[in-house]
Design a protein that fits this description.
Elements (H helix, E strand, L loop, with lengths): L2 H19 L17 H20 L4 E4 L3 E3 L5 E9 L1 H5 L6 E8 L2 E9 L4 E6 L2 E5 L2 E2 L13 E3 L7 H11 L8 E2 L4 H7 L5 E4 L4 H4 L2 H7 L3 E3 L14 E4 L5 H9 L3
Parallel strand pairs: 1-3, 9-10, 9-11
Antiparallel strand pairs: 1-2, 3-4, 4-5, 5-6, 6-7, 7-8, 11-13, 12-13
Helix pairs in contact: 1-2, 4-8, 5-7
Length: about 260
């Protein structure tokens, strides 16, 4: 399948997910709602089910890996990786900085990625070998002269193990820490792609959390890798670096490696 038709399908997947999610955003959280059927779970399930139906209809031989409903056709070389709501805590708090993540993997490597924010109507579309588009216009990361000037973001300190947290803080100490950002999940990677943030570092991410981010960041001129500097693929551990200016990569890896 040519990449243009894959991109068209990926965009339609984002459309149907957004339609499913919007009615649940900032909805009333009644006490009568059981723990296993909260609005966020309902929104998650409705969005993923809608995306799966579309893939089954349009690309029935492709595999699917979804956060809510697991894997289908795992032997397929092409796999759609879906995270209907990345940023559950933000979604529950009514903060429109969560996103729907859609990736297409070929033999385990991210080929296409979409970050979609269905409330603000913001969409980042990345594809290997193509410039990243933000709402249809090219997105570009910014240059960063030194690590000490870098604006660093992460979803939150609570997501690091003690060991990983020590290494993260060693890096944070070398960045512009007064400009450090907490919260944001996938939204940070979109902002990095548009040149508003320099660096995002996280640990413990699952495939559905990071697969879509790679084509977006790299197509905007940034780089994504694990904490050793190796490229991300379906067997990566979930230690992730996203960097707007690839010239700073050695500095980042060196700072992460040392901890006092």
């Amino acid at each position: 399948m040519p990449i243009s038709s894959d991109l068209a399908l990926a965009n339609r997947l984002a459309d149907v997910a957004g339609e499913a999610i919007r009615p649940f955003f900032r909805s009333q959280w009644g006490h009568e709602v059981k723990a296993d059927a909260s609005p966020v779970t309902e929104a998650d399930r409705a969005a993923e089910a809608a995306m799966r139906r579309l893939i089954d209809a349009e690309a029935p031989r492709d595999g699917i890996v979804g956060e809510e409903y697991g894997a289908e056709r795992p032997e397929a070389a092409r796999q759609w990786v879906l995270d209907p709501i990345d940023g559950t805590v933000s979604f529950m708090a009514g903060r429109p900085i969560f996103g729907t993540l859609i990736a297409l993997l070929q033999d385990g490597w991210p080929l296409i990625g979409i970050i979609d924010q269905p409330i603000t109507g913001e969409r980042w579309v990345g594809a290997a070998g193509h410039p990243t588009l933000f709402n249809g216009k090219p997105a570009t990361t910014r240059s960063c002269r030194s690590l000490s000037e870098a604006a660093l973001a992460t979803t939150g300190p609570q997501y690091f193990s003690d060991h990983d947290g020590d290494h993260f803080m060693a890096l944070a100490a070398k960045t512009a820490h007064k400009r450090m950002l907490f919260g944001g999940d996938c939204y940070n990677y979109g902002l990095l792609s548009c040149g508003h943030i320099d660096l995002v570092v996280e640990a413990g991410l699952k495939l559905h959390d990071f697969a879509a981010l790679v084509p977006v960041v790299e197509g905007a001129g940034g780089t994504m890798c694990d904490w050793n500097g190796d490229p991300l693929h379906h067997e990566s551990t979930g230690h992730v670096i996203a960097l707007g200016d690839p010239a700073r990569l050695e500095d980042v890896i060196e700072a992460l490696a040392c901890h006092h």
